[in-house]
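Board notes (copied after class):
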Amino acid sequence: MVALLDADGCYRFILAQVDLSGSFTSLTQIAAEELQVEPERILISKVSTDAAPFAPESSGSQTVIAMGAAVQIAAKKLKEKILQNCAASLEVAIDALVIDDEGISVAGKPESRLTYAAIYQLGTEWDGSTGPLVEVGSASIRKPSPGYAATLAEVAIDPQTGLVHLTRLVIAQDTGCAINRLAVEGQIQGAAIQSAGMALWEEVQYDAHCQVRNPGLSDYRLATAMDVPCIEALIVEVASGDGPYGSKVVGETPMVSPVAAIANAVADALGVRIYDLPITAERVWKALRA
């Protein structure tokens, strides 16, 4: 991917990655952290894949791990080039410079300052000696650390009808560094609802002629807001692996354990284990009377 400083003093990162589940927000945070500016100064631009540098596929929770690493590398290189140019222009050593959201100045001498717009001009004026501020970030194949999650499920069951009501769902996941905690919580909660759907509601049904009986959303049972309790997402941050700042996979891991936790909760309440999913009221009713 390509990183550059724009004329208005904002940093632009050009890539071919898809903004999947708000991943551009995380990439913005990574760039802002490395460049020591507010996220508002970061622009992520997605361009056509026939013109942009290579980007990994948007799957397997690898967007932030792979592309985030490239953003991090490009931001570090761009920051280093900017500091070198400013040090030469202000005639000081690099370690004497201070970075803030408005520009770069000399420590203890706030009047000796270059705004980001002025830094851009240093390399683009007709007599500029530094050249445009552009850098490239490229990361090799990233090896993510394994994801771990644990789930606690609580259910209430009507013994007369067999209806299972999910009353509580708590998921703890080791996400490594949670770069965007709100987005991470959303990923955990979304995956948990998918898993709960497999456990209690979702089922493709076939008739005697192997034709799907419920091909549309009017017949295929999905969870609604009335079915799902407030999902408690507990983020455990043990940084490791090649992800930026030790971040790990998020999206898929919390989809695994809720279905098993719900099935175990039902078995604990009934004293009978149901092996067919979803655990419908009919299956519970039959199991209680077997």
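Comment from the instructor: The beta strands are 2-5, 11-15, 42-46, 97-99, 103-106, 109-115, 134-136, 148-157, 164-174, 231-236. Residues 63-90 form the longest helix (28 residues).
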